[in-house]
Amino acid sequence: MADDDEDNYNRALNHSGCKTEHLALLDCFYEHKDWRKCKEVQDALKACMARPRPHIAPPPRAQPEKK
Prior knowledge:
With 67 residues, this protein is mainly alpha-helical. Helix content is 52%, strand content 0%. α2 packs antiparallel against α3. The protein is elongated. The N and C termini lie far apart (45 Å).
């Protein structure tokens, strides 16, 4: 898949820095069919997502409309 064809889901996943952890969680759920059996993998993804990402700019704030 070319970068310009990348869908929003994959773009966000790649940009998050936590793609490996996310895919591990999907694999765990696929294997066990029970989120409770994937607690360690969930915690790893949660910790990854909580890490600061200086390379990711926050979304721009909406500017109030001038009347």
